TrEMBL record:
Belongs to the FMN-dependent alpha-hydroxy acid dehydrogenase family. Its cofactor is FMN. Pfam families: FMN_dh. This is Alpha-hydroxy-acid oxidizing protein. It comes from Nocardioides agariphilus.
């Protein structure tokens, strides 16, 4: 078996090659895919000694919801393509772990089936060309228990992948289709005209749920999102799947965290592969740290049980890393614990 924190070798053994490649690939020459992973390693850890770490507690809050760990499940679409349990399996594992689960607009399971097993969960929103469909997905998600909306801002159009897989996701995302009777495929495409004003629109449609903007990589954008009503920003480059050559998230994170200060919460994802990357992210100002491909590999390898094992492995690895850096809680992981090489 592969490392409990990275089940990619196991997943490769069971997935059809086109599905494996669909998950693994990035945009362009995949410069950012590689840089995301490398950049965490550019932050050296500076541990404290003799701090007494027998009682590490990973519990934290995300927009007012108590969760067991700063590690959360980032939104990824089409999960039934990697395992028949799909989003239901992932949501169940996150619920059992007490971790936050973010459900993609491009989910492949039925909304009610996911909500029935989920613990705390947020809905990731792609504004679709037919805004009526988007409104329906948001309203139904609010009714089903979503506690926040994650507006993905880095995907006004879907970028061309370099090693394009032959998998065509167009009809694999059944959640939204299940909620409406619109049959025109173009209605489900990304709307390229999304602006800051849509933060307020989503708050309105959802009856006031907090809005998180995902895909923020700059201080000025972060401040503009907060000024437009966002409760949080999520530093992300879509795992290197959108614009290639963009700044790795471990580089963008401190700029964004400093820009919003205590006005908003900050989340991050991209290339996180160990508990020590989570500690680096917390030190640089993140409240929550998302796993994208890692969850899909675990789901592919072993279904819901695989995702549960992954989250448990992260909990153990993060606890040990916190002990070794001398921090007892996520709020004790401060900026002085890292330095740039
Ligand atoms: C197969 C796949 C599907 C994804 N689907 C979505 C999506 O539907 N919505 C979204 O906001 N991000 C999506 N993402 C991006 C993830 O939320 C996350 O930003 C990224 O995977 C983090 O990088 P990592 O895979 O290195 O952890 C997807 C990523 C992958 C790999």
């Amino acid at each position: 078996m592969s490392s409990p924190l990275d089940r990619e070798p196991d997943a490769r053994g069971v997935l059809p090659p086109d599905i494996h490649d669909y998950v693994a690939t990035g945009a362009g020459d995949e410069e950012t895919v590689a840089a995301n992973r490398d950049a965490w390693g550019r932050w050296w850890l500076r541990p404290r000694v003799l701090t007494g770490v027998s009682d590490v507690d990973l519990t934290t809050t995300m927009l007012g919801t108590t969760v067991s760990s700063p590690v959360l499940v980032a939104p990824t679409g089409y999960q039934r393509q990697v395992h028949r349990e799909g989003e239901v399996g992932t949501a169940r594992a996150a619920a059992e772990a007490g971790a936050l689960f973010v459900l993609s607009t491009r989910a492949s399971c039925r909304l009610d089936d996911v909500a029935a097993v989920a613990g705390p969960w947020w809905l990731q929103v792609y504004v679709l060309r037919d805004r009526g469909i988007t409104e329906e997905v948001v309203r139904r998600s609010v009714a089903a228990g979503a506690r926040a909306l994650v507006l993905t801002g880095d995907t006004p159009v879907v970028s061309t992948r370099s090693r394009r897989s032959s998998f065509d996701p167009a009809h694999a995302a059944t959640m939204a289709r299940d909620l409406t009777d619109v049959r025109d495929d173009s209605a489900y495409e990304q709307a390229p005209d999304v602006t800051y004003a849509d933060i307020g629109w989503l708050r309105e449609v959802s009856g006031g749920l907090p809005v998180v903007v995902k895909g923020v990589l700059r201080a000025d954008d972060a401040r503009a999102c907060v000024a437009a009503g966002a409760a949080a920003v999520w530093v992300s480059n879509h795992g290197g799947r959108q614009l290639d050559g963009v700044v790795p998230t471990a580089v963008a994170l401190p700029e964004v965290a400093d820009a919003v200060g205590s006005d908003a919460e900050v989340f991050v994802d991209g290339g996180v592969r160990h508990g020590r990357d989570v500690v680096r992210a917390l030190a640089l100002g993140a409240r929550g740290v998302g796993l994208g491909r890692a969850v899909l590999w675990a789901l592919a390898a072993d279904g819901s049980a695989g995702v549960a094992d992954l989250l448990a492995a992260y909990e153990a690895n993060l606890t040990e890393t916190m002990q070794l850096v001398g921090a007892r809680s996520p709020s004790g992981v401060t900026r002085d614990l890292v330095t740039w090489r």
